[in-house]
């Protein structure tokens, strides 16, 4: 399947149409951004590593009957995916306290809460992706209560699957951001990517950060760290 029109040109990814109206090509760029795109860089090889990790994880979830937009990896930095209409919401899952949650609740990074924490964020760069609750999401017409229930249910299944997988790989699955979209036949599926750009992943023994926090906090060796996550996952998933 070949690229046709560029339909979305993001900072870190591009989406191209294909000859099939129900599929798109997701191209992972080497660019990395943080803090509302104020901090930016180009890191050779980052796109390919994130593409590889996303493909492995989506294929693993597919094997567990969890629907995602992933169809197949078609090159080092491209995935063929089902076309979706994006739902402008981010469902963030926290297994450990870190990042904005640590700041907001004044809790130490790495603390394990007594329950997994699920947050909804409204995807709006003008508003700074604010936290919203379920009724606000319904009132804004973003999703129905039943669709939100479906998203939480899928997020729970994905999280329990990935916590087990990362644990077996010697990694701590700290948190993740999920995006959802609707296919032309109305199915609500996971879209975007699942990678060290959208999750926090720590070494299980040392708690070394192996994700985008290396870029956010200027820790260096970003692609090497992402590559070590990829290698550990490949060791488990083949
Ligand atoms: P935080 O609450 O600290 O902002 O983020 C929680 C988790 O969701 C982290 O793994 C973070 O990388 C991810 N996340 C939240 N919002 C975004 C976003 O806008 N872009 C990306 N790439 N990841 C996000």
Can you describe what's shown?
With 238 residues, the protein is α+β, with helices and mostly antiparallel strands. The protein contains 6 helices and 13 strands. It has helices at residues 46-63, 99-105, 134-139, 145-168, 213-216, 222-237, and strands at residues 6-9, 13-17, 23-28, 31-34, 39-42, 70-75, 78-82, 85-94, 117-122, 131-132, 171-182, 188-191, 199-203. The strands form 3 sheets. Strands 8, 9, 10, 11, 12 and 13 form a 6-stranded antiparallel β-sheet that branches. A 5-stranded antiparallel β-sheet has the order 1-2-3-7-6, with helices on one face. It has a two-stranded antiparallel sheet with strand order 4-5. It is globular. It binds guanosine-5'-monophosphate. Residues 90, 92, 99-101, 129, 175-177, 197-200, 212 line the site of guanosine-5'-monophosphate. Guanosine-5'-monophosphate is lined by residues 90, 92, 99-101, 129, 175-177, 197-200, 212.
How much of the residues is beta strand, in percent? 25-35%
Rg, Cα atoms, Å: 17 Å
Q: Which percent bin holds the helix content? A: 25-40%
| Structural class determined from secondary elements | alpha+beta
Query: How many helical stretches?
Result: 6
Compact description:
The protein has helices at 46-63, 99-105, 134-139, 145-168, 213-216, 222-237; strands spanning 6-9, 13-17, 23-28, 31-34, 39-42, 70-75, 78-82, 85-94, 117-122, 131-132, 171-182, 188-191, 199-203. By secondary structure, the protein is an alpha+beta fold. The longest helix has 24 residues, at 145-168.
């Amino acid at each position: 399947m070949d690229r046709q029109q560029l339909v979305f040109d993001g900072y870190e990814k591009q989406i191209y149409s294909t000859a099939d109206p129900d599929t798109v090509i997701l191209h992972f760029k080497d660019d990395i951004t943080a803090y509302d795109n104020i901090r930016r860089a180009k890191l050779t090889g980052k796109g390919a590593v994130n593409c590889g990790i996303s493909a492995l994880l989506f294929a693993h979830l597919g094997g567990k009957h969890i629907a995602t937009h992933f169809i197949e990896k078609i090159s080092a930095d491209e995935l063929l995916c089902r076309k979706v209409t994006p739902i402008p919401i981010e469902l963030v899952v926290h297994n450990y306290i870190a990042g904005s949650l640590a700041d907001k609740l004044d809790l130490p990074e790495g603390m394990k809460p007594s329950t997994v924490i699920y947050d909804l964020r409204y995807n709006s760069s003008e508003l700074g992706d604010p936290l919203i609750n379920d009724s606000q999401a319904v009132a804004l017409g973003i999703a129905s209560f039943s669709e939100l229930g479906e998203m939480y249910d899928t997020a729970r299944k994905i999280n329990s699957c990935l916590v087990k997988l990362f644990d077996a790989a010697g990694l701590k699955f700290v948190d993740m951001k999920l995006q959802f979209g609707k296919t032309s036949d109305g199915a609500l599926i996971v879209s975007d990517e699942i990678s060290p750009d959208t999750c926090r992943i720590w070494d299980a023994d040392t708690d070394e950060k192996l994700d985008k926090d290396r870029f956010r906090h200027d820790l260096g060796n970003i692609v090497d760290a992402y590559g070590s996550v990829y290698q550990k996952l490949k060791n488990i998933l083949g």
